[in-house]
Design goal:
The protein is mostly beta strands.
Length: 397
């Protein structure tokens, strides 16, 4: 492996009953989640193309839209780490697990009608879902051993945003750049800092709608050296919706997805393998609107009807080292990790740790394609080659 040189918990008291009181009538629920027809999936304009726009919610947080439809929200801090949540697939379904974030949100007080709809759909999306690993927070980047501080597992070691550098909107993409400090609870000090660049875009592959998040991060030590330890607990993470996970078919016969990588390995065989890309496909809650959503929210015994979503994670050529090991689990974790040699090679003598010294940086980049579960392996291969070519030409970093 080489180093790039350069400068560069869960609130149990919040419940679904808190989100929407049982005393609410169907009429009231319908009134607070009703949307203008212009915001429905069926009325998206096909004439103006995929136009990306952003709304800055606060000094640090941003919502992104595709042709006026909600796509994703960048949250600078969720219990100690920046995340992206919610995220919607092209068909409108929630494309990452809504728990535990939804436990800390009261959808009924959301002022924006479209976001109210998204959040009530998030309540449905995880109805009867698995509540494990509360540190799996939708879409994130951190690591389980940085100078022995655990930034992965929801411990007091935190990543805090120190500067919102820029927000750039163009016709076809939204780019935000932030600076962040890594506070190590073991040393009671900042051990490193990062600059992360998150690019949101949309388009189609052979006529199939896709939404894309390009994520890159460059890490610099703030002391003489910092060690990123050998552990499988890291680093670029996504948690798929509960119904999408391969093993969820044990909970519900209508649930259960599949995993495949560029070598054709499937499901559990994709874990611990290095790969150019991995694709996780399966059922997820269908996006509902208006009266239908009201009825499902009112009756907590109803399971959400299903659609299909897919998430393909492509490795960037500029990332540290070789292809990352894929810490992709059949229960729903979907992570990429360049450090965990000990675990992934099943070799107690192996050491995948990396020492980062002053003046050095580590760089990682990934492209995540959210689709409706309809991309073929050949289409993802072609998308990977395009991404690789973009980086080679300097268009992506």
């Amino acid at each position: 492996m080489t180093l790039n040189k350069g400068i560069w918990g869960w609130n149990k008291s919040a419940t679904v009953a808190h989100i929407i009181s049982k005393s609410l009538t169907l009429l009231f629920v319908a009134s607070i989640i009703s949307l203008n027809s212009a915001t429905s999936q069926e009325t998206r304009s096909q004439e103006i193309g995929k136009k990306l726009t952003a709304i800055k919610l606060s000094e640090n947080d941003v919502r992104i839209f595709v042709d006026g439809d909600f796509f994703a929200e960048y949250r600078s801090d969720y219990k100690g780490t920046p995340i992206v949540w919610p995220i919607c697939a092209p068909n409108g379904s929630l494309a990452t697990r809504a728990w535990p974030m939804i436990e800390d949100v009261d959808a009924s007080v959301e002022k924006d009608n479209q976001m109210k709809n998204v959040l009530f759909n998030a309540v449905l999306a995880e109805r009867n879902g698995v509540k494990d690993h509360p540190h799996h927070r939708s879409f994130w980047f951190n690591h389980g051993d940085v100078d022995r501080g655990d930034f992965w597992g929801g411990t007091p070691s935190k990543i805090r945003q120190t500067k919102f550098v820029s927000l750039e909107e163009s016709e076809d993409k939204v780019i935000l750049v932030t600076e962040n400090a890594w506070f190590n609870d073991k040393t009671k000090s900042d051990v490193c800092k990062d600059v992360r660049r998150v690019t949101f875009s949309a388009g189609n592959i052979n006529g199939k709608d896709v939404r894309i998040i390009d994520f890159s991060v460059e890490i610099t030590p703030v002391k003489e050296k910092v060690v990123f330890g050998d552990t499988k607990e890291g680093s670029f993470g996504i948690r798929v919706p509960s119904p999408t996970a391969v093993t969820s078919k044990k909970i519900n016969s209508k649930w259960g997805g599949s995993i495949v990588n560029d070598a054709g390995e499937k499901d559990g065989d994709t874990w611990s393998k290095r790969s150019k890309w991995v694709n996780y496909v399966g059922p997820a809650a269908k996006r509902l609107n208006d009266a239908e959503l009201s009825a499902y929210i009112k009756d907590e015994k109803l399971e959400a009807p299903l659609a299909t979503i897919g998430i393909a994670v492509l490795d960037g050529r500029n990332s540290l080292g070789e292809r990352p090991w894929r810490h992709v689990r059949d229960y729903g974790l979907f992570a990429s990790n360049p450090f965990g040699r000990h675990d992934f090679e099943n070799n107690v003598k192996a050491d995948g740790s990396q020492t980062l010294r002053k003046g050095e940086t580590m760089f990682f980049n990934f492209r995540t394609i959210f689709h409706d579960g309809n991309l073929t392996n050949e289409e993802i291969n072609a998308a990977f080659e395009e991404y690789d070519a973009e980086q080679n030409s300097g268009d992506v970093r």
